[in-house]
Specification:
single chain, about 400 residues, mainly beta, Neuraminidase, 6-stranded mixed β-sheet, 5-stranded antiparallel β-sheet
Length: about 400
């Protein structure tokens, strides 16, 4: 295993202090949710099919976007439904595919439709304000995600794509993050490695697919900066909202090499995901596919990143078969030093962490979803972490 040391490699003139002693072993996640959104009379009812975005609003409100229902639900702080807006369609305030939700300090809510390639603005009272269609010069590669920096500027990340590979070889994508101004996708902020694809022969047919344990691009706003990189390399670039280089953060995490035994682990994980629908024929098909597909050199260290309200960096532990929504999150300081692992309740995927709560999506055995809030007691570690110069 490769252990990468922690540290912030900074641009000239960027200074950074030493980490304070922090240990998440003293942190406690509540055993039961404080609030359930999408419940009926306080009882979990799986009110959602496919939650694709959750955003906090004023006075403790929550907005939840369902990518299957193509609607946004607004909830009061006590969990009661206030309003539902949006529907399938092409008109103003209608959706073809909701990718994410973004809020701002002024109380506005933005929903990004990656099908229509437009941003819809709403109020937390449920009123539609306007649509802004994204435009981009010099590329027909669509945008997959948008986000907002702490200084009010916006960024856009393009979709990952399958890069053509020669037979018995691999090719890796490069994914761009760009400035987004009034709907115009502008200057590149950062480019990072994306997925790795290959060309294989299976059943007399040639097909392109991702390699086993393929990495993906990662990116999250960190104050006025973007923290971006590939999921198999825990050295993350830090650029400001104008694209200026700030430095790198090396997360102290073990990176495991891809091994032959990962083939059988991938098959087992795929069969477990399919459940009772899996039969002998499907098992044989998956084993044949796994045997024919190359394995990435490194196992991804994370399937997702988030930065909490105190400035800690959270990396969701990668799980087979394709990353998954694991319940283990490794937590790091601004210099990349590890402060431990937080284990969340089963079937709960975190989407945001405040000073004292964890917001996320719960999925039951039947695939029904609701949004929950759990308490987070940090055991006195409530100080805001410092950021690199140019990011705070």
């Amino acid at each position: 295993m490769l252990l990468l040391g922690a540290g912030l490699a900074t641009a000239p003139g960027v200074l950074h202090g030493q980490d304070a002693a922090v240990d998440v072993a003293g942190w406690t996640v509540g055993a039961e949710p404080v609030t359930i959104y999408g419940s009926v009379d306080g009882v979990a009812a799986g009110g959602f099919v496919h939650v694709v975005g959750v955003a906090r609003g004023p006075s403790g409100m929550i907005a939840v976007a369902d990518g299957q229902l193509l609607s946004i639900s607004l909830f009061a702080a006590d969990g009661n439904l206030v309003a539902t807006m949006g529907r399938r369609g092409e008109g103003p305030g209608e959706f073809s595919s909701i990718a994410t939700l973004v809020n701002d300090p002024e109380g506005s809510l933005f929903a990004f439709d990656d099908g229509h390639q437009r941003l819809s603005e709403w109020t937390f009272e449920g009123d539609f304000v306007r649509d802004t269609r994204l435009t981009r010069q010099g590329s027909d590669r669509p945008i997959a995600q948008v986000g907002r920096f702490g200084d009010g500027r916006w960024f856009a990340r393009e979709f990952e794509r399958v890069v053509a590979a020669q037979a018995n070889s691999v090719a890796q994508d490069t994914v761009g993050f760009f400035a987004l101004v009034d709907g115009v996708v502008g200057e590149v902020l950062a480019r990072v490695p994306g997925g790795i694809t290959t060309q294989i022969e299976l059943g007399g047919r040639s097909m392109g697919r991702g390699v086993l344990l393929s990495p993906r691009s990662l990116g999250v706003a960190w104050g006025r900066c973007l923290l971006a990189g590939a999921s198999d390399t825990p050295i993350l670039r830090v650029v400001d909202s104008m694209g200026g280089e700030v430095g790198e953060v090396g997360l102290m995490v073990e990176v495991e090499p891809g091994r032959e035994e990962h083939r059988s682990e991938w098959v087992a994980a795929m069969l477990a995901m399919v459940g009772d629908m899996a039969g002998p024929e499907q098992k044989t098909m998956l084993e044949t596919l796994a045997e024919a597909t190359p394995i990435a050199e490194l196992v991804p260290f994370a399937s997702g990143l988030l930065v909490d309200d105190l400035g800690y960096i959270w990396a969701q532990r990668y799980e087979l078969p394709e990353g998954g929504a694991g319940t283990e999150w490794r937590v790091f300081t601004e210099t990349g030093s590890s402060v431990g692992t937080v284990v969340l309740p089963e079937r709960f995927n975190a989407v945001g962490v405040s000073a004292d709560t964890i917001l996320g999506v719960f999925t039951d055995e039947l695939g029904r979803q609701d949004v929950r809030v759990y308490s987070l007691d940090r055991g006195g570690d409530t100080a805001t972490r410092p950021m690199p110069a140019g990011c705070s």
